[in-house]
TrEMBL record, chain A:
Its main location: other. This is Simple sugar transport system substrate-binding protein. GO terms for molecular function: carbohydrate binding. It is found in: Cell envelope.
From TrEMBL, chain B:
Pfam families: BPD_transp_2. One of its GO terms (cellular component) is plasma membrane. The lineage of its organism: Bacteria, Bacillati, Actinomycetota, Actinomycetes, Pseudonocardiales. It comes from Lentzea albida. The keyword Membrane applies. The chain crosses the membrane at residues 43-61, 68-87, 93-117, 124-141, 161-181, 211-230, 242-261, 268-288, 294-312. Its main location: membrane. GO terms for molecular function: transmembrane transporter activity. The keyword Cell membrane applies. InterPro entries: ABC_transp_permease. This is Simple sugar transport system permease protein. Keywords: Cell membrane, Membrane, Sugar transport, Transmembrane, Transmembrane helix, Transport. It is found in: Cell membrane. It is a multi-pass membrane protein.
Length: 322, 327
């Protein structure tokens, strides 16, 4: 046991040393001719949001003339790490991925760094002290999304308000940040209390099952705050089954603004949606070209997004792409 | 026999008791729009797919096999039906879609049976093929999207009520049928015989291969119906998440129920108890408010406890009086 620990400690120390030593090496491994190949390790297809995100990346890669190698990790970190390793072996020009969880990426990203392959994070960030492991992070500001949801509730709540929270996948950046931003804002109003909070894994059936249990264990629920539309849609089903009216008896706030969610918002079953824009393909390809060419890029690029009320949803719905 | 079911029964009772102490309202039942409404009803409704899959799994395990592909098959069933229904709201389309899905599931079961009984591949490997490939097939069918449908007839399967949830009525009906067919005829004994020794059974005149083939088809059809329930419960087909890890829950339900993974012996009542324990555990986590970070640990502790008390040594130690009573 002790031997194992010392070995592990040794490896950690070594990698820390090399990490310090190799800063500033700007060259990139280009694969053959002038075309850029991008290895993209997607989280999965867990929601409508994600599939819109995937489609945007695939379409924009084609439009930009970038050869895309795409893999689907089915929400598992080990699959994503495997995919990234295989991209390193294939010597792609740039690796992009949406980390399924925040931690545990240092080793594999260090491998990419040693192979001189730049890494772009999309949509979700990682939790690492070493910011040299990736060139830039393109994506939404989840804390800000949580704050926007909190702001709306603070502005619209009257009297004591009991909130139940449907969290995303435990450990995922959007789940942690959307919770944090929301709590930050509602702290200003002691009347608003989060009485129960549980993970619904970003899925409809998860949201429905958790909401069913909340409806039985909580005597009074005024607001549901779901970390994505799909869990909110599941919660709507559970609320209806309990003989209550979603959007009226129990108000619903969600994040994402996918088509099904917007439809429910327009129908008055959801009260407020904070947008999280999945169509970041174009920005990603522009960044990839710059990074491969060795140009400097800002280490944080935020996607443009807004919020929707019921009236705004009715107006925006016809032009919604996803 | 009775003794074997005692511990799962106690575990279930303990879980329910925990709920009663923490949230007394868990047991309150009322009628809501002609349907029974309450925490216990949720356990039954959400546990129905696991129970159904565990039933199929019980028979497969009794022949000394295992079927890892049930989750993927469930995803395919939901995907095929939802894609077939599309925007239609008619009951006919829903029924046709479900029929197509179940026939397809039976074909997938035949494939598993072919690999195991026909080619003699080890069950865990043979069904692993479909476990991984099946999800890909479901993704192809739905084109990677979550397919949302709006069909009242389809919604009944997973979210409908005839006082009790329709899903649990279906599962209990299948349980009754299986119990009747396998325990009132020789089929159950033949399945167990195949599990004990397929070759010896064949020499004794039992059609081992046909029986193995049949249990895999049955398991796949059960998985298909469960897939319909899961997808119908939320009126959407999610190729990625529908039935994800449900094969593990099903195997666990079978094992908790006292069926040996070595084959040759099975208990349907045990499987019923096992499935109920697993679903009660999940619902308990939500109701008593176990923090999401420790949910898996909580579940693991309960499962380990249940398995431990069932271990032969633990049972011998726990039944003080009956130790060493030769008959």
């Amino acid at each position: 046991m002790l031997k194992k620990i010392t070995t592990v400690a040794g490896v950690v120390l070594l990698s820390a040393l090399t990490a310090c030593g190799s800063g500033g090496g700007g060259g990139t491994a280009s694969s053959g001719s002038g075309t850029i190949t991008m290895g993209f390790a997607q989280v999965g297809a867990e929601s409508g949001w994600r599939t819109a995100n995937t489609k945007s990346i695939q379409d924009e890669a084609k439009a930009a003339g970038i050869e895309l190698k795409f893999s689907d990790a089915q929400q598992k970190q080990e699959n994503q790490i495997k995919a990234i390793r295989s991209y390193i072996q294939q010597k792609v020009s740039v690796i992009a991925f949406s980390p399924v969880v925040e931690t545990g990426w240092d080793t594999v990203l260090l491998e990419a760094k040693r192979a001189n392959i730049p890494v772009i994070l999309t949509d979700r960030s990682i939790d690492s002290d070493d910011t040299s492991l990736y060139k830039t992070f393109l994506g939404s500001d989840f804390v800000e999304e949580g704050r926007r949801a909190g702001d709306w509730l603070v502005a619209n709540a009257s009297g004591p308000t009991n909130v139940v929270e449907l969290q995303g996948t435990t450990g995922a950046a959007p789940a942690i940040d959307r919770k944090k931003g929301f709590e930050e804002k509602i702290a200003s109003k002691p009347d608003i209390k989060v009485v129960a909070s549980q993970t619904g894994d970003f899925t409809r059936s998860g949201g429905k099952q958790v909401m069913e249990a909340f409806l039985k264990s909580q005597p009074k629920i005024d607001v549901v705050y779901a970390h994505n539309d799909d869990m909110g849609l599941g919660a709507i089903e559970a609320i209806k089954a309990a003989g209550k009216v979603p959007g009226k008896d129990i108000k619903i706030i969600t994040v994402d603004a996918v088509k099904d969610g917007m439809q429910a918002l327009a129908n008055g079953e959801i009260n407020f949606i904070v947008e999280c824009n999945p169509l970041l393909g174009k920005q990603l390809m522009e960044l990839a070209k710059k990074v491969v060419a060795g140009e400097e890029v800002p280490n944080r690029v935020v996607t443009e997004e807004g919020t929707f009320t019921q009236e705004q949803a009715k107006a925006a719905l016809p032009q919604r792409q996803y | 026999m009775k003794n074997r079911l005692l511990w799962p029964l106690l575990a279930l009772a303990a879980l329910l008791l925990l709920n009663l102490i923490v949230t007394p309202s868990f047991f309150s039942l009322r009628m809501q729009d002609g349907a029974l409404y309450g925490g216990l009803v949720d356990v039954l409704k959400n546990g129905a797919p696991t129970l159904l899959i565990a039933l199929g799994m019980t028979l497969v395990i009794a022949t000394r096999g295992i079927d890892l592909s049930v989750g993927a098959v469930a995803a395919i069933a939901g995907a095929v039906t939802c894609v077939h229904i599309g925007t239609s709201g008619s009951a006919g389309t829903a029924i046709a879609g479900m029929a197509i899905a179940l026939v397809l599931c039976a074909v997938l079961g035949l494939w598993n049976g072919f690999l195991v009984a026909g080619l003699g591949i080890q069950p865990i490997i043979a069904t692993l093929v479909l476990m991984t490939a099946g999800r890909g097939v479901a993704m192809l069918v739905t084109e990677g999207q979550i397919v949302t449908v709006n069909n009242t007839a389809y919604k009944q399967v997973g979210a409908g009520f005839l006082v009790l949830p329709i899903s649990i009525l279906i599962s209990l009906l299948v349980l009754g049928l299986v119990a009747f067919v396998t325990r009132k005829t020789a089929l159950g004994m033949l399945i167990e015989a195949v599990g004990v020794n397929p070759e010896a059974s064949r020499l004794a005149g039992v059609r081992s291969r046909t029986i193995i083939w049949t249990v895999y088809v049955f398991a796949a059809v059960c998985a298909g119906i469960a897939g319909l329930m899961i997808s119908s419960n939320v009126s959407a087909a999610d190729a990625n998440n529908a039935g994800l890890w449900i094969e593990m829950d099903a195997i666990l339900a079978v094992v908790i129920g006292g069926t040996s993974l070595a084959g040759g012996r099975y208990s349907l009542t045990g499987t019923l108890l096992g499935a109920l324990i697993i679903q009660t555990l999940t619902t308990t986590v939500y109701t008593i408010g176990v923090a999401p970070e420790v949910t898996l640990v909580f579940k693991a502790v309960v499962v380990i406890a249940v398995c431990l008390v069932q271990a032969p040594k633990a049972r011998a130690a726990l039944s003080f009086r009956k130790v060493a009573v030769p008959s």
